[in-house]
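Minutes, project check-in
Item: structure for the 163-residue chain
Input as provided by the requester:
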Amino acid sequence: MEKSYEINWLKQKGDIIGTTILFSMGLLTMLFLQVAVAGSPGECAVTHADPAVESLFKQNQLSTEYNYYYTGRSQIPYAVIGIDPKYTLNSKFWYKIESKNKISKKINNLMPIKGDRVTYGRILDSDGNQIGLWFSEYRSTIVRFESGNEITVFSPYQPNDNA
């Protein structure tokens, strides 16, 4: 009688362990899928520092086809971006720079952040294709693709920075 009790007890424990393992595997699978989807093409972009962009800026050869925007104060912006015209910027914190003559002025007047120097870079989609340019003493920001060709570029400003 005692052996059958032990066998039943082991079966119950085995079922609990099996269920726990299956549940854990399911959670890990869901986590993996979330990470895989979050990194899928078309969802996020990155800013990538590139000395060639600095050279283009200093030689006054920035793309005139891009739409340029700034965020922050008009006289001392936090960042300036140039966006490929096939994308629509979806953000209330970015202001279009209407005059091409003002693009260089905005970049030259970027807000100094803790003595850092300006990051001149490219905004790349998850496939490494350039969708824009980045100018800021902040090294990066979040760029997210929305429906269609809309993108959201978050302001790099951090309220706790000693600007």
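Outcome recorded: The first helix runs from residue 2 to 38.
No further action items on this chain.
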